[in-house]
Write a structure and sequence with these properties.
Two copies of one chain form a homodimer. The first copy, chain A, is 29% helix and 25% strand. Chain A is an alpha/beta fold and 360 residues long. The termini of chain A are far apart.
Chain lengths: 360, 360
């Protein structure tokens, strides 16, 4: 049995992102949005993996709020493959739960942990690298994919790549010299210039047994809590989930395991990655030769540099405006400068502190 | 019986204005909009006049498309007081029809012709001047109200005021020296500086008999067509309207009568008039000390100089933008620079030439 045949995708789809408000809402966060007109990013993640990992072995970890929407978006998935967290506890408990579920199904199963809300331009290359990563991790490694940086980004963590790991199945595999927290701008500029630093994009591959043993080693209390979930070997029912899950330590897998483990390795992922982190990012996806990015029904007269999006049957009409984000949904409109589109969070904050319920 | 007791208001409400798109639509033009939160401009016009002219003597001339909406907006009005043009033929036929209807009800009736889509700041002063105008017109005069200009406006016609008309009932009445078409900017600047020029705001007062005799004198063919409407003395039924009205000459009352008549007089109307001609104009109505004009549910963070309007239960949210117009309706959003808000017409034109039906 090849590594690929033992691989379970673990799609992380619990995000509550507010950066795409008003299109994103509590019940329709970024991973469920159709920003490009080809379906949701969650669905795209599923479809990218499907030739490597069949639906039966794709798990999605999400929130209870989103479980039904996830099943609707991925009707191919067995319903039991959607793991609904009763409350968000960051990535380490989520991955621990998925590892236990994978181990229950296949004691020698491998995990391919992949965020549900990322864009990949070159899917064939992506599949090549994922295949390498899966092969490599079977030898008890934690293989991350590191994205070669294209700008001095201060919003991501970084991975410094070390020497070649000399892995025959994964010729591009390198040791991890260090994980780094989000840098300041000067440091980011330095790292960008120096080469050898990669963005940590939250994609990694490891055996379920290794995930659990590393958790037990570095976060024993969390590991014991997780064990209680599968007490007796059966998946937790709603009552046990509700009793146990909220007591688990809320910690990221990076802090809990990656930055401490000596098993980490990295493959540079040169497949055109974007986390589509803000409205501004969509501008990079405008068609060749177009001055603006448009989605939905848009009339733009005498303008450019804009990100214009009309949800559903709505219409966005502009005359003579430049470098703006304009998003229309049936019940709300956002307007902000394109280069300040992360400030949409200020609006969400204002809504949260006011009577914003209909719009959250 | 005083002049006031013989006065019929003729509210001109046929406008199809597209300058307030997307709030205004074919079935909801400017006069039916609630731009200020105190009800529609049509209703405000009715209520301003109501202490002088009771509902039984207020007529509204509008289009067949808008008849029901007008009756809904003014439930006090006898349904027969809404005159529905089967097709728009400009103001002269509309006023001719109204004059015939007034004459049928009171052969000595007077007409107070008033647009349905204007804003008046000082309503008590307005009523004073309207009362003077009504008294003065009873002596077979056509009394217009001229607005003292506050800017070199090139979008209106002008009236040059002459000597005092020495009218005891209307001490502010002056002869009309001349009517002028819309000027170019240099001329408008000159007129503004010189004083003595007033904006023609389409408000005028005259006996029904004079309206009809002047039409017969200057536009005999139109007058004959109008007579055919009331053949036998009864108001026209739908069939006669449909047969006759579209054949009437489409011409404004200014061209047809005002500029030719020797009966014209004018009272300067210093009652805080605005025709609220564009989105930009609303900015002048922002509250004391406010940087932006807002209507409906609006969140504005770190911005100013904006006109922000959310229709119905919608929300407009902006961060860091200045001097824009942003209008949200359930099915469309408009964004344009405040000082170019007249360019909304370009959008309406684009919709008309495309498949814009849902938004027109």
């Amino acid at each position: 049995m090849s590594s690929l045949d033992r691989t379970f995708a673990v799609i992380m789809a619990g995000g509550v992102g507010s950066r795409f408000w008003p299109l994103s809402r509590a019940r329709r966060p970024k991973q469920l949005l159709d920003l490009f007109g080809h379906g949701s990013m969650l669905r795209a993640t599923f479809e990218r993996l499907a030739p490597l990992v069949p639906a039966e072995r794709q798990l999605v970890v999400t929130s209870a709020l989103l479980g039904d929407a996830v099943r609707q978006a991925l009707p191919e998935l067995p319903p039991a493959n959607v793991l609904e967290e009763p409350t968000g506890r960051n990535t380490a408990p989520a991955i621990g739960w998925a590892a236990l579920e994978v181990q229950r199904r296949d004691p020698a199963g491998l995990l391919a942990v992949l965020p549900a809300d990322q864009f990949i331009a070159d899917v064939p290359r992506y599949r090549e690298i994922v295949t390498q990563a899966i092969s490599a991790c079977a030898a008890d490694r934690i293989v991350t994919l590191g994205i070669p940086p294209t700008r001095p980004e201060t919003g991501y963590g970084y991975i410094r790549a070390g020497a070649s790991a000399a892995c025959p199945e994964a010729p591009e595999l390198r040791e991890v010299a260090a994980f780094h927290e989000k840098p300041d701008l000067d440091t980011a500029l330095e790292w960008l210039a120096s080469g050898g630093y990669l963005w940590n994009a939250g994609m990694f591959f490891l055996p379920a047994t290794l995930a659990l043993s590393e958790l037990a080693r570095y976060e024993p209390e969390l590991a014991r809590g997780l064990d209680a979930l599968y007490d007796g070997g059966a998946p937790p029912d709603a009552a046990r989930l509700a009793a146990v899950y909220p007591t688990l330590r809320s910690i990221s897998i990076d802090y809990a395991v990656m930055e401490r483990s000596d098993r980490a390795a990295v493959i540079p992922g040169d497949f055109g990655w974007s986390d589509v982190g803000s409205w501004r990012t969509l501008w990079d996806f405008r068609p060749e030769g177009a001055e603006s990015f448009s989605r939905g029904r848009v009339i733009e007269i005498d303008g450019g540099g804009n990100v214009l999006l009309a949800d559903g049957d709505g219409l966005v009409a502009t005359v003579g405006v430049r470098d703006l984000v304009v998003v229309h949904t049936a019940d709300a409109t956002l307007v902000c400068p394109r280069e300040a589109s992360q400030r949409v969070r200020d609006i969400v904050t204002a809504l949260q502190s006011g009577q914003g319920d209909p719009w959250l």
